[in-house]
Amino acid sequence: MISAWFKNVLPRGLYGRAALILILPIVIIQLVVSIAFIQRLFEGVTRQMSRNIAQEIALILTEVETQPDPAKAGSIAESLGAALAMNVSLPATQGAPVADARIFYDLSGRVVIATLRDAFPTLGPVDLSNLRRVRFVLGTDHGPMEIGFDRGRVSASNPHQLLVLMLFTGLLMTLIAFLFLRNQLRPIRRLARAAEAFGKGRIVPYKPAGAIEVRSAGNAFLDMRARIERQIEQRTLLLSGISHDLRTPLTRLKLGLSMLGEDADAVAMSRDVDDMEKLLDAFLAFVRGDATEEEAEMQDPVPLVQGIVEDARRSGKDVVLHAVEGAGEAPLRAGPVRRAVENLIGNATRYGTRAEVSLAILDRAIRITVEDDGPGIDQARREEAMRPFTRLDTARNQDRGPGVGLGLAISADIARGHGGTLRLGDSARLGGLKAELVLAR
Ligand SMILES: Nc1ncnc2c1ncn2[C@@H]1O[C@H](COP(=O)(O)OP(=O)(O)OP(=O)(O)O)[C@@H](O)[C@H]1O
Ligand SMILES: [Mg+2]
Predict the structure, then answer these.
(1) pTM (2 decimals)?
(2) Which of 96, 168, 313, 402 satisfies CB 3.0 to 4.6 Å to 92 for a cystine?
């Protein structure tokens, strides 16, 4: 529970964490040093100085009390005081302090009063309300004596200077450290951005920079990206090469079959040839699924989805756009997204009878859902259905012709190319399959 609380409180970004690691020790050192300084040095020095002056006052007091005559005592007190740089009057004047007075932030003042009171049991009220003067009343055999002197004689002068200096250099150092830190973190952030974009199927220019570790991670990323790109390219070349080269003999075969006339065998064979052609088209569509040719463009998904649904209706499918929720733009490749949604609608109307499409534009993703009233797919077989060339056999609508088994694989591929996924589930509303195409924003 405590660790969960910590996780919530601590900053999540690298920048914040690094700043915390940097600032926390500085702040703690400053606090510790300040407290030690105020406690030990500042108070200690004040106490020592107060004791010294107490000795001088004790001298005056002894001299005064050995005098039998109050008038004589008064003049002795005054002249001794002058010699020791104090204002002494015996008896005390009208303006003598009547109560202890100290400004609340005057911490050393407390020590001054305590030390004087320790030294003189007959000490009266001490007035420190003027930060530059110490004034107090001391009881003697000849009545109350008033003493005043510069505050500088009992307290270290300008003690806050060290604190101010410390705070100032602390802030300055933190600022400098921040600037350096930012430069160190920038390459990491750039690498993260490049990796994130590549995950969403975008390629942003990236050059490794920064500390050795970041640089080597960046180089590793570039190698990886190059290899993946090369593999996609090779797969595309291979499959489109095969499809293309097969098409020529197939066309010849078709031509030969049409020469044979209306023979029953020939009709069956030409249907097979048609199937093969369809297969090749599906191959090509699969290959194009990654669609590295088309750049993602920021666009509003609403008209795109509306258009797809409209086109599907025109080609005779029972499809409606059920709901649109949210608004905003997303980086989409219109062609591939259209292909992916059309595959899902095709499945819905092939294995069920009608389809409902909904679109949700969320904070970080858009979700295109296609639901149908068909038999659905068992939970256990959903993964399998998304693999290329998989056809599930259960009571499917076979009279609409068998598929190739690439539709879902292509849609899933396109979703991944947009930094998203394809999810299959149960449609609560229609009872069939619910296919969700999630694309990153
Ligand atoms: N809406 C659906 N309802 C029920 N089963 C489905 C649905 N969509 C797909 N399936 C099952 O998943 C299998 C794989 O679907 P997929 O779209 O990948 O291939 P296909 O439809 O058979 O062929 P094609 O490549 O022409 O789309 C299908 O053969 C079918 O058995
Ligand atoms: Mg299909």
Answers:
(1) 0.60
(2) 96
